Amino acid sequence: MNDQQTSVTQLKELVRRFVEARQWDQSHLGKNLSMSIAIEAAELMEHFQWGDNSDYLPGHMPVDELAKIKEEIADIVIYSLSFCNHFDIDLAAAVEAKVAKNETRFPVKR
């Protein structure tokens, strides 16, 4: 799988099947999922907590550290997709609507 060949629907289905196979549906509820997203985001932030911005430039980060960061962002996305599955949220439509709203809130300065 890669970004160019994988749809959001395919990712949501992958996560749905994973959750169903483990019978986690009863614990993957809105409150728990929203908290899990925040917890995983905090775990991502820990990797950047004490460094300077120059320590985190693409291509300059140690491979093992980047691997840990990839796992954290994957956890955030997995929980987010599970959240979307739980509430039947069309993620692409939600992102498009939010960007359109942000276009009016934050216009390009000319």
Key descriptive features of the protein:
mainly alpha; 4 helices; 110 residues; Helix Hairpins; 0% strand
Report on this model:
With 110 residues, the chain is an all-alpha fold. The protein has one domain: MazG-like (Helix Hairpins, Orthogonal Bundle). The chain is 65% helix and 0% strand. It contains four helices and no strands. Helix 2 (30-46) runs antiparallel to helix 3 (63-87). The protein is globular. 8% of the residues are buried.
Record the SSE blueprint.
Elements: H1 8-21, H2 30-46, H3 63-87, H4 91-105
How is this structure best summarized?
With 110 residues, the protein is an all-alpha fold.
Q: N- to C-terminal separation? A: 40 Å
Average pLDDT value? 94
Indicate the proportion of strand residues. Answer: under 5%
Helical stretch tally: 4
CATH homologous superfamily descriptor: MazG-like
CATH top level? Mainly Alpha
Quantity of strands, as a count: 0
Question: What is the helix content?
Answer: 55-70%
Taking pLDDT < 50 over at least 5 consecutive residues as the criterion, the unreliable ranges are: none
Number of domains: 1
Helix-strand category: mainly alpha
CATH topology: Helix Hairpins
CATH architecture: Orthogonal Bundle
Order of helices and strands: HHHH
Supply Rg.
17 Å
